[in-house]
Amino acid sequence: MAKTDSGNFFEDFLLGQLLRHPTPRSVTEGDAALYLALTGGRFLLESSAEAARAHGLKAAPLDDLLVFHLVFGKSVPQISLNAVANLGYADCRFLAPVYPGDTLSAESRVIGLKQTSRGDSGIVYVETLGRRQDGEPVLNFKRWVLVRKRDPENPAPETMVPELAPLVAAEDLVVPRGLHGRNWDVELSGSPHLWEDYALGERIDHSDGMTLEEAEHQMATRLYQNTAKVHFDQLLASEGRFGKRLVYGGHIISMARALSFNGLANAIRIAAINGGRHVAPTFAGDTLFAWSEVLEKWTLPGRSDLGALRLRTLAVKNRRAEGFPDKDEAGRPDPALVLDLDYTVLMPRR
Amino acid sequence: MAKTDSGNFFEDFLLGQLLRHPTPRSVTEGDAALYLALTGGRFLLESSAEAARAHGLKAAPLDDLLVFHLVFGKSVPQISLNAVANLGYADCRFLAPVYPGDTLSAESRVIGLKQTSRGDSGIVYVETLGRRQDGEPVLNFKRWVLVRKRDPENPAPETMVPELAPLVAAEDLVVPRGLHGRNWDVELSGSPHLWEDYALGERIDHSDGMTLEEAEHQMATRLYQNTAKVHFDQLLASEGRFGKRLVYGGHIISMARALSFNGLANAIRIAAINGGRHVAPTFAGDTLFAWSEVLEKWTLPGRSDLGALRLRTLAVKNRRAEGFPDKDEAGRPDPALVLDLDYTVLMPRR
Amino acid sequence: MAKTDSGNFFEDFLLGQLLRHPTPRSVTEGDAALYLALTGGRFLLESSAEAARAHGLKAAPLDDLLVFHLVFGKSVPQISLNAVANLGYADCRFLAPVYPGDTLSAESRVIGLKQTSRGDSGIVYVETLGRRQDGEPVLNFKRWVLVRKRDPENPAPETMVPELAPLVAAEDLVVPRGLHGRNWDVELSGSPHLWEDYALGERIDHSDGMTLEEAEHQMATRLYQNTAKVHFDQLLASEGRFGKRLVYGGHIISMARALSFNGLANAIRIAAINGGRHVAPTFAGDTLFAWSEVLEKWTLPGRSDLGALRLRTLAVKNRRAEGFPDKDEAGRPDPALVLDLDYTVLMPRR
């Protein structure tokens, strides 16, 4: 029997099927340091254990996106090893902080299947859940992926397309137990701008640029234990459409989030990712810039210390973000656009 | 008196001499995270502290090869700084797991000396031992190295060539105290294939490819505190035969081991390295692939939970491992071959 | 109100002003491992927790220069984001060791201001202090930076140029509480040469070379949370004088210190930086070499176990340090010279 795992093909998935993902992963201060060195993050609660404790957490939590990438990475060998394309994310909620010493495990349930009209591939919809060692859920999200069939002649499963919420509603956002925004020190956090200071529709140019290197994105993607070959195998890449290794899209989200510190330093926690699109691929040598737009402002029930901002953060490559490059009226993206992310953050109030 | 250490030359070694290597090294979760980011390792016991504890260890151990590289690296300044070539390894046994918080020290005894017929260099055979802070041995191995003489006119020492076992016998393998393979969860470990499922002579193509970058191998080799100049000094390399910095051979072993997860996910611990050959040099930009062959299957005395597999893992560069590139009948290696490693792993039984 | 922080310009600084720098930073074993992997450090107390405890410290301390870079990095967004040039350092004293688990914060006081004759920029002198979570000072230094004006028409502040000591006097050096050099094991430390063995004026070629990569210096500089754009943004660099990203000068100091192990292995702690000059910029691809000169030898009051050496360490690029490349009689630096650092170390005595 073949010992090598070649991943699941479209016809291997069953509606309702639960896949427990190998291998659980204990996270440590080493992961946090590497993530910082790879992205340049400076958000206060992750940077300072003292500040995290002063605001009700038990220690400096791991960066929310590092948790996302670890859980996502776990799902790759069973869900998307044979993916033609990652089509989208939805309904991603961050449920509890993860601390050094925790062990993350992940599982995915198949919630939808739809064969393409050509019949050689199909869309697989999964809901992925990340848990802590005590079973506590820390993160869930839905994603859908176009997966090749092993054999186009194999019969198609019944089509089932799940309903996907366009965003995580304000009342479904989770504020981590204990976390509060009282007595927030704007000198130490890096910005005087709190929730009240952001206006609907406001646009922010995050100004700084960051050039990506092969060693950096490879180290990041391995840290996430994401095994997608396109990020690591130049021989494969040389035969492909771009001739180059692709940077893992999630790492671009991380870089955009780190760049957004300059303008959103008090966006101390990601509560949800509503949706996101990798508009174009990114390669080593590209320089990233980012800008953000405030889509919605929500108060949180019973909380005067924290509010929520729904943001859209866009990343562009090899040009600055000034002028806020975006889609045009016909919906055609600016040629420099690589990421269009819709997400919700928590921010201290005055 | 010259303050710079220029390393030992062939005529500096004495048969029976014991060299205590500077500097002891405390290992941490930071080392484990970096090793993971550099190699992409996913073996269950190293990835999950929960799983390690469930199988009788006190925590997630450091990767066996990370321990090997740290002990090996310690020996470089005194043993192989003036080496022309690393000729071989033998009789390498992994004696006890190493955990974050342990401090490793290393020492080597000269067990053989043989001047070459040209008289300008000689082979030094050493047995190297790595210990924990409490004196407990964690690793030993023999290696032999061709070392330059400071002055070809210096007299040759008496020749003494030690007997080197062709492999570590099954009865000499050490199962770490407490470690057991009972109730092994093949869903979490990443493969359904256990010891019983591997057949003598079976070949496994590990499928995935990994391209190496200068920053990656340099960071790895510095993490191992290995000071061999050929890995770091491009000015020196530019004057040399290849014009490029050489990747530390041990790092290639690590990459091959990490790639072997796909096909050998339940090879949870390396018990011995029987021998190994770096068939050709590897450079940044090369893409590695690996395949393995099952050489022997051994039960272990008194254990029904774990068995041993003696494996041969071969790494090739810039071509896939399909077709199992190997030596030809005349013993000439395939031009893509870079590593031929003979080692023994422990694997849970049914 | 603009949310992006564009940093302070010359006319924003006030004499006597105190700037508390965001964001405090908890340091961990992950930072120590990364620093080791990036620099190759091998000094005994940082490498071995056992040795650190045997010599009176509570654990393996973070490398002194890592602490320097973290405190320096904190000051960049408010002090030198709009710097034309970093002109110098003085009076830098290392006051207490920093251990994994500590949280560093930093603040700077403006101690001098001097507008240039052209009127479009000015020199800002600051004294920066790094503290531990309990308020204990761990490091202070002065630096002066040439900073652009936002508007050359803005009025100049009154000129105040502080007096800067040419060096930290022997009586002002701090030996960390508990640290002692008794029973120093020269086999484990990597060198038989102790304080008594170094002669005034002695020169040491540190021999080894180290080639820098983009991914390495970027990861290091992000680890230090230093946000200066010139190190990360190739688009900006392409428009600049060199066309390339600049390596953070402090990282060159770290590389020179790590190289100096070969010749100064027993220089176990940096007590002071008296001054330093980045003679020329360094880029990825450059290979660094270093040499040192003994400027002064000091006994320390009441201590027979430790002495101090005032050293000058010079780094050159793309040529070896043999022949001790230096300034010529007219003060013109050797074209290969990139760093000229004057600092003071503690070393065990016989």
Structure summarized in a few sentences:
3 copies of one chain form a homotrimer. By secondary structure, chain A is of the alpha+beta class.
Write the layout of secondary structure elements.
Three copies of one chain form a homotrimer.
Chain A: E1 18-26, H1 29-39, H2 44-47, H3 49-54, H4 64-79, E2 83-94, E3 103-115, E4 121-131, E5 137-148, H5 186-189, E6 203-205, E7 210-211, H6 214-223, H7 234-238, H8 249-259, H9 261-264, E8 269-278, E9 287-300, E10 303-317, E11 337-348
Antiparallel strand pairs in A: 1-3, 2-5, 2-8, 3-4, 4-5, 6-9, 7-9, 8-11, 9-10, 10-11
At the fold tier of CATH, the topology name of chain A is: Thiol Ester Dehydrase, Chain A
Based on CA atoms alone, the radius of gyration of chain A comes out at 20 Å
Ranges of chain A with pLDDT <50 over ≥5 residues? none
Which CATH C-level class of chain A is it?
Answer: Alpha Beta
Oligomer: homotrimer
CATH architecture of chain A: Roll
Structure annotation, total helices of chain A = 9
Number of domains of chain A: 1
Distance between the termini of chain A: 64 Å
Shape of chain A: globular
Proportion in helices of chain A: 10-25%
